Structures are given as C-alpha cells and as structure tokens.
Amino acid sequence: MPPPRCWRPCAATCPARRSTPRPPARTPPTAPAAGRRASRSRSSTPHTPSTSRQPCGTPTTCGYRSYRAGREPGCPEGRARARGSVVLDLSRMNRVLELSPEEQIAVVEPGVITAELDRTAGEFGLRYAPDPASAAISTIGGNIATNAGGLRCAKYGVTRDALLGLDAVLADGTLVRTGRRTVKGVTGYDLTGLLTGSEGTLGVITSATLRLRPVPEETVTVAAYFTTFAEGAEAVSALTAARVEPAMAELLDGPVLGAVDDAQGTALRSRGGALLLLQCDGRGAAAEADAAVRCLRGHATSVEVTGDPAEADRLLAARRLALPSLERLGRVLIEDIAVPRSRLAAAVRE
Predict the structure, then answer these.
(1) Can you give the residue range of the structural domain that contains 117?
(2) What CATH number is associated with residue 106?
(3) Is residue 2 part of a domain?
(4) How far is CA 12 from CA 9, 49, 144, 177, 282, in A?
(5) Is the pLDDT of residue 64 over 80?
(6) Residue 75 carries which DSSP code?
(7) How far apart are CA 106 and CA 210, in angstroms?
(8) What is the pLDDT of residues 148-184, one digit of tens each?
(9) CA–CA separation, 284 vs 52, rounded Å?
C-alpha cells in the first residue's frame, strides 16, 4: 500500500529502505529511564535520516505525534506513538562534526552518545559538563529535547547551560540556525533556549554547538550514609547554610538503595536509610570536600572520601543504576519537584 499523501515529500530525501513500517524498537531493559513511559503503538512509520537535509521532507505539518530526537530514556524516543504516526529516528546522525580545543566548543549531530562526546573531548583535556545518569546510552539530541539535568547540574547547570546554538528543521521544512559560537551572546531572542526542552514540538534538531569545559585538576568524592532520608535532607540543608557548593549532590532513599541491592548484589541498604553522594572539583576540591565532611559528621552514620577515579565510579554506580534497578520492580512513575534549598528538609518530612 502506498504511503499516505502527507508522507510523500519524504521520498525524495529518505531512501525507501529507511522509511518502511516496522514495530518500534523497545528500550533495553537495563537502560535507565526517566520514569514516564510513553505509550507504544503497534503501527508507526520510522524514518532514519543520516543527513541534516533529509528530515526536511518529513511530514511535520500533517499531525505526526512524535520524533526520536535521539535517546534520553523515558521521554523523547517514543513519546505518544499513536497508530499512523511518523517517528524520526536520528540515531544515524551520530557524528562529531567539529571539536575546537581553542574555542572549547564541539559541534555534534543529535545521535552522538553523551559519554562518547565526553571521551572525545577528554582527549583534549576537556569535557561536556552535563552528566546525565544515562550518559552511556543517552544522546545529545535526547538531552536537548528534554533539557536533561545530570549529576553535575548543581555546579554546571543543565543541558541549556551548555548549549550555544542549534541547527533545526521547522514544521514546514525550513532549516534554521540559532545561537552563536561564543561564550557571550546577548543579541536577539533566545531561540536556542526556546527549542531546548521542547521535546520535538517546535522542530527537529539536526546539530548542536556545545560549550566544553576543562577537565578539573582535582576531583574528590564523598559518600555519607544516614539513618533516615529526612536526616540526609537536613544534612543537605546544612551544607547549603555552610556555603559549600559541590559540583554534584545526589540523595538516595532507602527503597532505592534496596532496589539497587536486589538488582546488583550490593549491600547499600544495610548501611543506612539514605545515601548522599557529593563531588567537589577544581583546584580547591580537597578543601571544599573537607568542609563538607565537617558539616556531615554531625548528621551521618558514616562518611567515605576518595580522590581515586575508580573508587569514585564505584560510589556513583548506586546513582547511575538507581532507575534501571527500580524498573525491575514494575512500572515506574517519577515526577520532579522543586523547593527552596532552605525548605528541603521540611519538604521531605511532609
């Protein structure tokens, strides 16, 4: 059966073998997920362009429901795949187009895996600061589509803060370029920020200009266990009051620790009802970590400190494996809330 009329413009730019109906791919069961599972349809038509011009012919004006901006688990790769919808799979667009150590920027296609960009930048003593827990499988396009946060957002911000410019295809097929290649940019509307977090509703992102940062000279990781989650939240408030500003601060409660134990064979839950993970980086990392430990001593049952990268990865594994471990127990629904830092402990108690 020939494709519906509104699909035909894609034929000139998308090879037929890349636009044949097939069931949508399932997310690997071990992949972290943001918790909001998209409904999946038995019938959808995926398109897998490999260049920035191929999405131009995709029928974005005829009511398609979603596109796969890349992979940021839980949202953009399968959002509302209704019957007869059109899905763009941009995983073939996975090249680092430019990496400039002098300007500390990278220009990448949306299918580039986050961790692979970080490794590539690391060869030049740089890194991509946002560090989503799903960095090993998430893509830059998925991160941009959801404005993903990440473990280091306490110091470096979220995806939008590392994004300088975008190339995108609008609903009528128009190619647009937004933003800049410089650190400072104060002219005109912030269209880059508008597209970031729009989950494909405003356009298809085909490339992104990203800000890179130097790899810190020193990184110190702190892990503190608490009897209860409320005590852990109170410790976080104490850190804020002491003006300690770590690059990363992640607090996991007892049920999450138990889920990780069941999935990974660890014994985190036996050490407490909550785990706080901190990471301080830069030339003053050791001094800042010492200040954090002094604040935590009055709240935590035990505190570990390490400057060894391998040991730090072991400690951070509990956070990176949290969501896939929870998924083994059944359907996961997670919603973000935001409260003033001074009210964090009170919010937990409520």
Answers:
(1) 96-214
(2) 3.30.465.10
(3) no
(4) 6, 12, 28, 23, 51
(5) no
(6) S
(7) 5
(8) 988 998 899 999 999 999 999 998 899 999 999 998 8
(9) 43
